[in-house]
User: Fold this.
Amino acid sequence: MLHADNPEPVLPGARILLVDDKPELLTSLHELVSLHGYQAEKALGGQAAMEILQEKPFDVVLLDLIMPGISGHDILDFVSREQLDCKIIVVSGDGSFSGVRHALHCGAFDFVKKPYAADELISTMETALRQCQLESENQKMELQLKESESLHRFIVNSSPDLVYMLDRNGCFTFVNDRIDTLLGFTRDDLIGKHYTELVDDDDLEVAHNTFNERRTGDRAAHNVEMRLKSRLTRRGSRFLHSQNIWVELTAEGVYSDPRERTRDNFVGTYGTARDISERREQEQVINFQAYHDLLTHLPNRALLKDRLNLGIAQARRNKRKLAVMFLDLDRFKLVNDTLGHSMGDRLLKAVANRLQSCLRRGDTLSRFGGDEFTLLLPEVRTRDDVVVIASKILDRLNSPFVIDGHELFVGASIGIAMYPEAGDTGEALIQNSDIAMYHIKGRGKNGYQFFSDEMQYKFSTRLTTERELRNGLSQGELRVYYQPQVSLSTGQITGVEALVRWQHPTRGVVEPIEFLPVAEETGLITRIDEFVQQQAFKDVAEWRRAGLGDIHVSVNLSTTQLEQDSFVERFTSSLEASGLEPSSVKLEITEHTLMQDMEVIIPKLKEMRKRGLSIAVDDFGTGYSSLSYLQQFPISTLKVDRSFVGDIRADNSDASIINAIVAMARGLNLELIAEGVENRTQLRYLRSHGCSEAQGFIFSKAVPAKEVIELLRNNSFDELILEEPENVVV
Ligand code: C2E
Ligand code: MG
Ligand code: MG
Assistant:
């Protein structure tokens, strides 16, 4: 019986088992099944069926119920016991209801009664096969689904980013496992919590914008940077103290119907957050480096300039003043040169600390480079306010620094520029405070000085000065000028002070104040001093030989020259070479230099004194010398600083310092010479107070050798001196 209308098997390759105890029935069943395109195996009787079923799986079993020995019921029990996955169609002549019911109860798929109609049997079998097919497809699908779900879960949970979902109210509905390693929270800590509980307080506004805007697609929030609270401690990083973590966050609105993004459709927010704290830290370090000095951790030039410009804008708006201090350490170079750079570095740090202790909130102390610091005081009312701070700084720096058992003394020279008098831009204020600082350096250091318009500055930077000065020295551009010193009892020139000048090829005559500080810093000062001394000894020896008078010469010594180990020998041999008597030479040493390194300087000066030279304390009165202090030095003359002489006026100005100096000189049996005498009033006053010599513009400024020869020839200032003394109010 060929069923040509049903040639295609439902499940090609279906595994079918036919079971009957009657060989002829088994054969005809096999034929029937084969006719419909199915391959089937035969089992003759229950025993054979059980053996085959044990051996391999089948999709469908056509089972005869009534068989001797092992019956169809036994097979059903066996299949159920062994949990074999096959559909059993019972084919049996036992039409009794209970037999069929029992078979179905025991797991049979269907029932066909013998003698069967071929169509019915095949169609029942094919129904079972279809079912098999469906089940296997389902199973496959289920497996696939399971696989893909766990794949997704795996992907989400092993993502290096935090993956989250918020509901429409902003509460967490999902976070992946990363939450634990990133922030130290468990999923349960967060599910149901509002996002504000996780966001750093300072970033709540950013978060609010990000999550409440419900953006999607192109408008979704990308790369929003914010901090999330963390329970984990960060490895000690230098500049980041917060425990919170910087993340870069994406947020995209999720809608129940993606085509209709309405408020009603909004179900929540999906997004990711990536840990960027390392990058932020690096940025912060880079930022810090760009705006701070790495040694002292103080703001650097760039940051100072920023703050200065801000300060100026505020001062302008509020019609207030502002001060910039330029501070240069006086003896730093010496420490660096003798004790090494690492000691120098430690000293700078210690200085920075001390300076900081003098400041108020709002002041900015910055390291400008080397041993220079700049101080911005944005809140000052008067110059007196600034004087208080400058004095405090000088005072604090006066006590020694003890580093590694070394007692280190550093002083400071402070230049001050006030807004608006000394400039109305940051640049001008810094430059002018620098100029003022140079002036105090040039006047013996350790003090402060306000900028005034008379201070000129010919060189734009110190580097230019240094380069041109080196060049000038080797090109012979330095000159020695002489300023006469006049006896106040005879009006005769008793001596000259040798003062250096720089005949610059384009800038003309440059005053010492403009280049000596640089020369001191760079060590060029010793070459300059030695040049001036050699030239002066030679000139004066010549003038004496020419009968121009029994004059002496005063030469200025720098700290650096005095500190040279070979100072005494070099100086003496230069003097001997000129043929000038040592008794005709006076060494001018500033009060500040004397105080710098007493143990080194005193023996040298004693030696010089022994060789017949005399020693004057220059710029006397600007330092802190006390009487007992001065007694230790082998000095013969005090040279009153010109600032005190300038204080003598015809009106009732205070010249009490001069009076004190005069008294001191008398007490110590020292000669007194006044410098910077410019008018008759001053001259008269000094004479009447027992000052023996004077030097100043009233007689002559410092002039080239040719001109001083003229003065020596005339040598008569009698008409200035021999005037009747007048009463002067002091
Ligand atoms: P100083 O040794 O106190 O020299 C006196 C300064 O006062 C000179 O300034 C002189 O020109 C100035 N002066 C003299 N009379 C008057 C006056 O009546 N009124 C005013 N306003 N000023 C007067 P100068 O030549 O500019 O020298 C400045 C300083 O530079 C000197 O002060 C000295 O400390 C230093 N200096 C000059 N030449 C040398 C040198 O060869 N070696 C060293 N180490 N220092 C030098
Ligand atoms: Mg001098
Ligand atoms: Mg002087």
